[in-house]
Amino acid sequence: MPSKQADAPKRTRKGLDYNAPSHPRMVKAKEREAQAVQMRAAGATLSDIAKQLGYRGKQGAHTAIMRALKGDEETIDHVRTLELWRMDRMLRAVFPLAITGDLQAIDRVLKISDARAKLLGLYKPIKIDITERLLAEAERFGLDGDEMVAAAEEIIAEGI
């Protein structure tokens, strides 16, 4: 289904396309998005960014940052590195308390570790190849191993 934006006529006045990348309005929006990314990288909260740059709220600031980062791997890597550095600093600050048994500190360490794991993509699903196991079980029960593997692949493809 085509998007509404693709179907919408271009907003023009005197032949100017308001959505063209070179239009002053779009240039200003891109500059503001870049400024939002810089502020976030420097540690500003989404609320602070929204107030200072005139976004309607935290969500507007977040959307602008994500739009600016879309497809910019170098900037994304920079922000990810910065976030990891911040998490490391927080972890170093609270870890000594956690190892003494402070329950609040333990909880904070676990939350920081969880955020770090998510940022690094450590919770990705593990892909397991069960073909050898299926073939061995088929042989054990006197079944056709290739049929068993094909049936398993079909089940997986259907998402059952």
Fold and architecture overview:
The protein has 160 residues and is mostly helical. The chain has 3 domains: 13-70, no CATH class; 74-120; 125-160, no CATH class. 69% of the residues lie in helices and 2% in strands. It has a two-stranded antiparallel ribbon with strand order 1-2. A hairpin with a 2-residue loop joins strand 1 (12-13) and strand 2. The longest helix is centred in the middle third of the chain and has 26 residues, at 73-98. It is flat, with a radius of gyration of 25 Å.
> How many domains is the backbone divided into?
3
> Beta-strand percentage?
under 5%
How are helices and strands ordered from N to C?
HEEHHHHHHH
Inertia-based shape: flat
Largest sheet: 2 strands, antiparallel
**Percent helix among the residues?**
55-70%
Low-confidence stretches: none
Number of strands: 2
Give the topology:
Elements: H1 4-7, E1 12-13, E2 16-17, H2 24-41, H3 46-53, H4 58-69, H5 73-98, H6 103-120, H7 131-140, H8 145-158
Antiparallel strand pairs: 1-2
Distinctive features:
single chain, 160 residues, mainly alpha, 3 domains, two-stranded antiparallel sheet, 8 helices, 2 strands, 69% helix, flat
